[in-house]
Input
Amino acid sequence: MGSKPKSPMPLSERAKQFLPFAAVKGLTEALEKKEKALQFLEKIELSEDRSDELNQKISQLNKGEIISITYYDHGEYIQITGTFLGIDKVYKSILLDTIEIAFDDIFLID
Output
């Protein structure tokens, strides 16, 4: 005797067979974390002359001026361009659009 014919798979179940398969859970995240660790940069300590040069540039900035700042943030250097909004003297930082950058993290101002 023959076996009973199978009923067709519902359409809602059919798509599941094409989903990506992760053989090892968390492998992608672990690899991304390892890659990030390998790309980690140490913060460059500025010379006294370079620090004085940056302080002079900061003192010459005008509100509303478009500037570009390269700064250190969690193991990488980031360059951002935006409108200079002012200086926070209490926290020793520059206010640029929606970001606040500490003086100690600034590497370059253009």
